[in-house]
Write a structure and sequence with these properties.
The chain has 10 helices and no strands. By secondary structure, the protein is mostly helical. The chain has a single domain, classed as 3 helical TM bundles of succinate and fumarate reductases (Up-down Bundle), CATH 1.20.1300. The chain is globular. The chain starts with a helix and ends in a 7-residue tail after the last helix.
Length: 227
């Protein structure tokens, strides 16, 4: 038990928690983007996809129950991700109680230096996004029976779309830094593919960000619109 507690208190354990929770969140981000891409196929296809999420597991589980299980699981992953990040920050401060007279950022990327602020922006966006398109509490034209209408009418507001775009740019930096550092945290840093970590992380972050940003831009440009 003492060895387990020692490991729990170690930076390595916290990095592993951050990495594993990050994998779950990365998977969600990709799945969410691909699902939202259904909007390019029209209202019927998008609403059919949204209903398919709610009907997962039927008739063995009640309508919408598995979707809520997934949401709760993602919430736990987010909380663990934030907790591990905060714990690592505290450990770093304790290890270096006196700040450097001159910070050296030559080796640090812009993404790594803005991870905390990016995380705050993303968290604020996620809360707003849920209130806007899941619960409808801040959506003036929310229709619980028509998700396509909610998304398109929501993005027709320029300020909502702008917030969405800014949040996804912050997410891009977060994904880039988080993904390549995650390989190291999980011990996946073999010399044969170590040099591919950053290019892979950059490609992954770029594809996800371009895909997500395309949704509000398509609505504002009139490519995707209400019938």
């Amino acid at each position: 038990m003492s060895r387990l507690m020692d490991f729990y208190r170690s930076p390595m354990a916290k990095k592993m928690v951050m990495a594993v929770s990050g994998v779950m969140l990365f998977g969600f981000v990709v799945g969410h983007m691909l699902g939202n891409a259904k909007m390019y196929l029209g209202e019927h296809a998008f609403n059919e996809y949204a209903e398919g999420l709610r009907s997962l597991g039927e008739p063995f589980v009640p309508h919408g129950q598995l979707l809520w299980v997934a949401r709760i699981g993602l919430l736990v992953a987010v909380l663990l991700h934030i907790w591990s990040a905060w714990q690592l920050t505290l450990l770093n401060r304790r290890a270096r109680p006196v700040s450097y007279a001159k910070k050296k950022t030559t080796q640090a990327t812009y993404a790594s230096r803005t991870m905390r602020w990016g995380g705050v922006i993303i968290l604020a966006f996620v809360i707003y996004h849920l209130m806007h398109l899941t619960f409808g509490s801040v959506h003036p034209n929310f229709d619980a029976t028509n998700p396509f209408h909610n998304v398109v009418s929501g993005f027709q507001n320029v300020w909502v779309s702008l917030f969405y775009i800014v949040a996804n740019i912050a997410l891009a930096f977060h994904l880039y830094h988080g993904l390549w550092s995650m390989f190291q945290s999980l011990g996946l840093d073999h010399p044969s593919y170590k040099g591919l970590r950053r290019p892979f992380a950059a490609l992954f972050a770029t594809l996800v960000t371009v895909g997500n940003i395309s949704f509000p831009l398509a609505v504002l440009a009139g490519v995707v619109k209400l019938s």
